[in-house]
Amino acid sequence: MTPVLEVADVFRRHGEAFRQARAGHLGRVERRVMGAITACRTAALGGHLEQCNDCSATRIAYNSCRNRHCPKCQGLARAEWLAQRQVELLPVPYFHVVFTLPTLVGEIAFQNKAAVYAILFRAAAETLITIAADHRHLGAQIGVTAVLHTWGQTLQHHPHLHCVVPGGGPSLDGTHWIACRPGFFLPVRVLSRLFRRLFLQNLRGSFDAGKLRFFGNLAGLTEPTAFMAALNQLRRIEWVVYAKPPFGGPELVLAYLGRYTHRVAIANSRLISLADGKVSFSWKDYRQNRKTKVMTLDADEFIRRFLLHTLPDGFHRIRHYGFLANGGRNDKIALCRQLLAVRHTPADREAGEDTLVKCEIPTCPHCGGTMRRIGVIPRAREREQPFRCDTS
């Protein structure tokens, strides 16, 4: 069911006032995201005319903006990505480990998104791979799929990394499979300490190389003594790393990944109302046992919070490490299957492809039949060109 209210509606009603009020501070990426979401699935992007093969009903289907921050454009991208992951699943338990940044580091990250988010990925992956390779803990080569989220339920900036990890891996010499203990992956306290050390080492390296910029309330950190004092403070606090219980089975891993990998800051389904210049939306209070509550913000503040989570151009928010790393992944997965005495079957690939095909083929809202394209609708600025109708 299509949501009654969308983020695009907020942008259409209040976006121009937001742009004018923040003309000197709104970046190119944020402006482009607002424009894309506003135009998504409207006449501005053009589209096509569809007709049902069974009942002959027709409808207009406007093009998607395909922006990765758009709440309406993640379905096909998610299906394509999951189809690729389907063939990589192993018949072992999978664990979910979350790395969260302290408040001060989160503030530094917001002012240096590309640099600090990259450090977050690098430090978390190195932490997992290093501790897993230690014979005192597992002694194995592991694989990691990491997904960056930068938001909390109320849309405040809250950078953290979700890592999905198979419960084991090839031995360091590659001769046999080593499984983790049932229901337990790696000790979170050990992970937390190493993650903190690696992250702060990388952060200092970026500072020394002149790759970090500070402004506003963080402007004082441009001075080396102030920056080192901040690092010393961060070394004295505990960093939050936690591991959730293992998934019920490999098939549930895909269901989980489908919810997390292509999620945006807020789904349209959470929006409740837009009236009198205010936006109301639902959120879950995890401090009160996930109780659902309603938050109301001025439209200007809602837009500001939404745009906090735009990512720099070209930044990859899903990354793979260990035996799941892009380089040589197929050979490493084949080795894992060999050590586990399982083989990749054609049925596995067909299952993934079926998921993608079902997502791609539009169905008739009246009878459930298959819709086919019968005409092209040009973009709004191309309307002077004649409408083209397919006759084949």
Explain how this protein is built:
This protein is of the alpha+beta class and 392 residues long. The chain folds into two domains: 7-69 and 362-389, no CATH class; 79-265 and 308-355, Replication Protein E1, Chain: A (3-Layer(aba) Sandwich). The protein is 38% helix and 21% strand. The protein has eleven helices and 14 strands. It has helices spanning 7-21, 28-39, 75-86, 103-111, 113-133, 188-208, 224-235, 250-260, 299-307, 329-339, 346-360, and strands at 47-52, 58-62, 94-100, 143-151, 157-166, 168-170, 177-179, 241-244, 271-275, 278-285, 291-298, 318-322, 371-377, 388-389. The strands form four sheets. A five-stranded antiparallel beta sheet has the order 8-3-5-4-12, with helices on both faces. A four-stranded antiparallel beta sheet has the order 2-1-13-14, with no helix packed on it. A hairpin with a 5-residue loop joins β4 (143-151) and β5. α1 (7-21) packs across α9 (299-307). The model is unreliable at 345-359 and 383-392 (pLDDT under 50).
Short description:
By secondary structure, the protein is α+β, with helices and mostly antiparallel strands. The chain is built from eleven helices and 14 strands. Helices cover 38% and strands 21% of the residues.
